Amino acid sequence: MDVTVSGGSIVNQQVDTVVVEVGDGQRRLTGAAAQIDAALDGAIADMLRSGFFAGRAGEVVTLLTRGALPAARVVVHGIGGATARTEDGFRNRAGNLGRALRGLNAGRVATSTQAASDAIGGEGAARAWTEGLILGLYRFDKHHTSAADRPRGTVSAVTLIEATGTRLAAARRGLETGTALAEGTNLARDLGNEPANLMTPTHMAERAQALAEASGLDCTIIERAEAERLGMGSYLSVANGSVQPPKFIVLRHRGGGRARPLALVGKGITFDTGGISLKPGAGMERMKGDMTGAAAMLGAMQAIARLQPATNVLGIAPCTENMPSGSATKPGDVVYAMDGQSIEILNTDAEGRLVLADGLGYARREGASALVDIATLTGAMNVALGNVRIGTFTNNDRLHAEVERASAVSGERIWRMPMDAEYGDLIKSDVADVKNTGGAPAGSITAAKFLEKFAHDTPWVHMDIAAVMDSDRDTGVLVKGNTGRPVRTLVHLALGRARG
Ligand code: BES
Ligand code: MN
Ligand code: ZN
Question: Quick one: which of 6, 239, 437, 496 could link to 320 by a disulfide (CB 3.0–4.6 Å)?
Answer without folding.
Answer: 239
